[in-house]
Structures are given as structure tokens and as C-alpha cells.
Amino acid sequence: MTSIIRWQEPPASAAGRKANQERVSTVEQLKLHPGKWALVAESVNGSAVGPWKKLGCEAVGRRNAKDANKADIYVRWPAPSKGKAAAYPATLPASLPAAKEPARSAAAAPASPKAKPAKASLPLSTAAPRLDPNDPKDAALLRERQRFEAARATRLNGGRNA
């Protein structure tokens, strides 16, 4: 028995979904223009942004102007960041005031590298405020709380009423 050897590359796989293959080729094009938005789908289900996000893109769906039940999908490849400063625009619109850096007091800074920072103070009471049974809104909350407590007690008692 003689075997014939042919040296050749296997054909491209036909397995997989065609839509995913198209998305991958679109992502390659988006990578050439990072930070620039592209309309990639019109009049589709709004959940169609998920596969784009899984591929590493930023994707949003906006309501279609012709059909309110459908969405237009906009996608972009994220622009490369240059540290934390790149996450914020260099100039803010005139309607937004610039954020101020919080002042640091000497007491807030640790005395030495080994010193632990001070813990934030917690409120003295974390209990829920008292409800007034004469107030209609509070009365409804009290009834709901009582139903919840009764159901919980029944579950804890193995189905027997408390």
C-alpha cells in the first residue's frame, strides 16, 4: 500500500457563523480608525451591541428613526489611552465647571509609609427610621414588612406558622 502525500494548506473552515466572521473583518477596519464611531447596523434588535462588546469594541444602540422598536448600532474601536489623563477631555464644555482637586490636610496624610490611613466615620445609627402607622405611605410599608416577616418565619419553621 502506497500513500500519496500532497503538501497543501487546508481550506478555510466553513464552521462558525457568517455574521461573526463579518464582525471580525469590520473590527479590523475599526482598528485602523480608533476612537471614530461607525454605523454598522440599521433597524436591528438593540441587543445586537453584545457581540461587538465581546470583540473589544465600544458599542451603543440608538432608537431607529423609522421603527421605534428597532435600533441602529454604532461601534468604535477604543482610542489608545495615555494614562489616566486621557480618560477625560482636555477642555470641558462651557456649561460644565472644571472639577476641583480636593484639598488634603496634614491630618489626612499618613505620618509614615507604615501608618494606616484613618477610617471614614460611619453614622451612629444604621437602623431604619421609625414608621408612623397613621401615615398612609408608612402604613403600607408596615403591612408589607409584616407580610415579609410572616413569610420568613414560616420558611424558617419548616412550613408551620409562627
Provide a descriptive summary of the structure in words.
The chain is an alpha+beta fold. Helix content is 25%, strand content 12%. It has helices spanning 18-31, 49-54, 136-156, and strands at residues 38-44, 58-63, 71-76. The protein has a 3-stranded antiparallel beta sheet. The longest helix is centred in the last third of the chain and has 21 residues, at 136-156.
How are strands sequenced across the largest beta sheet?
1-3-2
Strand segment tally: 3
Q: Major sheet, described briefly?
A: 3 strands, antiparallel
Strand percentage, roughly?
Answer: 5-15%
Helix content: 25-40%
Spatial separation of the terminal alpha carbons: 84 Å
Radius of gyration: 30 Å
Report the oligomer: single chain
Overall mean pLDDT: 75
Order of helices and strands: HEHEEH
- Count of helices? 3
- Note poorly predicted spans: 85-93
Secondary structure class reads: alpha+beta
- The outline comes out as elongated
